[in-house]
Every structure is written in structure tokens, then in C-alpha cells.
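Render DUF3667 domain-containing protein in 3D.
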Amino acid sequence: MLEKYLKRDNLYEYRGTTCLNCQLPLEKSDHFCPNCGQKNSTKKLNFGDFFVEFFSGMFSYDSRFQRTIRVMLFSPGKISKDYVNGKRMRYANPFRFYLSASIIFFLISGISDKFEGAQFVNPETGIREGVAAIKQDSLLKNELNEIPALKKNNIQMDSLLNKIGPSEPEAKKTYKDIYLSQKELDTINIVARTAKKLNIFYRYYKETNTINPDDAITELEYENTGWNKWLYQKAMRYDLFDNNPQLFIDYFVNKLPFIIFFYLPVFALFIWLLYIRRSFNYMEHLIFAFHVQTTLFILYIIGYTIDYFLQSEWGYTLANFVFVFYLYKSMRNFYEQSRVKTILKFIILNIIFFTLATIATIIALIISFSIF
């Protein structure tokens, strides 16, 4: 009976009796290996099979991707509840999906110049710098040029400002004015000593432009240790960021998806403590936290896209308002508590979130500067 079926069903022609991947014995009726999941086939790979497998895998993921976004946006809390209840094959992995959404968000948000309005004050001159400052100064000059008294006497603000000129800056302190010897530094605590060294190194670099840490430390007559070399390198980096603040901002923003990725497990710990009397374990709270944060990124992606094409600001604002309502509904549906308890815990969680976010940002800035 089986031989007769094999003659007319060519699918069985390439079925093996052993899994080529894990060597598990198989039956001819086994389409996939029950141990490792590999397809039971001895057929040599050809060009057509390669593209069929590639596109089937892509559309399979795309189906889960679309379902995940749809449920995540329009059924707050459902995707987390389904996932912890074992319905996982229909959705994308929450951790990988978070990374994908966060990276896309930061790429899209980077298209618009978010820091166009930033104004930086040059510590050397005290003059505002940046795109917004230039625009404001230009508008101010145009307005002053329209003053009747100036127009009547044909006086241009540019020439007037050039004649007046900036006031003479006060005499600046050099590194010699704040210099402490190695012996003097050893008498103060490590925190004050490190801050003092950084200040001395920074001023020394500004005045001498010495790039080699060994030469600088020798000239300053400090111990030639790895710690002092590292501090001098950080002083040079600080000068670079001081003159080009956008450089550090871009560097830090690029690291934010991964910073938040490691921040969320800490936040999930506080969620677990807040719901400690509920029957959820830590991992289930963590999945909920990742799903909620991913939703925020998706809403921001939609908001930034709207603002980019319509040249408006309401898309981003609307995303924030929608997320506040979404977070409440997610907590209500996932944890299934009363409205009063949910609102109270919603307020507490937001306070915890912003407190932890502030601490995490400070730590991340310090670490980012240290490893740059």
C-alpha cells in the first residue's frame, strides 16, 4: 500500500528515515523532525527551493508582525495576557520586537532636526551659538534695521554692532592659576582630587593643545599612571564635546535603545513589588513592560511621521496623550483590578518611572562619556 502511494506522491520520494540535522530516526510520514523541527527531506537544495523557503519565511514573520502591531495598538494589555498564557506563536518575540521598534523610532526621529532649537553658549566668548540663536539674531537685526531713526540716517545694524563690538573679556585663569602639585593633590579626597585633575588637564589642553597624555603628565609633573592618562583623554573629549555638543548628543541618542533595554528590567522589578500580591511572576511583569514601551515607540513613530509630512507638532503631542490612556487601559486589562486601584497604581508607576528614568539617564550619560 505504501509503495503504491509513493509512486504517485513525489513528496515521499525525498522523505528520509533519519533527520539530517539531529540524526533522530523518522518515519516516512514525518513531514518535520519532532526533535529539532527541521523539514524531513533528502532533496538537494536548488535555486527554486531556496527562494520558496526565503519568501515563505519572510511572509510568515510579516504575518506575525502585522498581528502583533494590530493587537498591541487596538487591544491594550491583550498581547501581554496572551503571551503569558502561552499563546506565543501568533506574536513576535517581545524582546526582539522592542529592539526593532526602538531602532526604527530613533532612525525616524533622527530625520527631523530635533535639536534645531538648541542654543549653546560658548564658554570662551559668552555668545549664543546654534541654529536657533542664529535665526533669532538675524530676526532681531532685521527688526532693528526697520527703526525709523536708523533708516532715516541710513545706519545699518551690522555696521553699528561692529563699531560697538563685544566688551573686553575678563582675564582668564590659566592652568597655572589652579595648578596643584602631586603632593598637594594627595592630601584631598579622591572625588575632589579627580575633579581638580580634570579641571587642570582641561585648561592645560586648551592652552597647549598637547595631544599625547604622556607628554602632558610629564610636563605637569604628575604620576604617569593609567588613571591619569585616562583622565587626560577625558579632558580632551570634554573639549571636543564643548565645541561640538551635537556630536555627543548624536552619540548618546544612538545608544538609547540599548540603554532603555537594560533599564526596563529594573522598572519591571518595581512593577513586581507594586503587584506583589498578584499571581504574576517577575518575567510576566517584564513582558508587560516591554510591550508597553514598544507601544510607546510605535506611537512616536506614527506621531513623528505625521509631523514630518505635515510640518506640525501635534502628532507627537497626540501620541503622548494616547499613550497615557493606553497605559491605563493596559494595566486595567492585564492585571484585572478595579478602576480605583488601577488609577492609584498608574500614578505611583509613573512617579517611579520618571524617577528611575532620571537616575538611569544620569548614569548612562556618565558611562557614555567614559567609554567614548
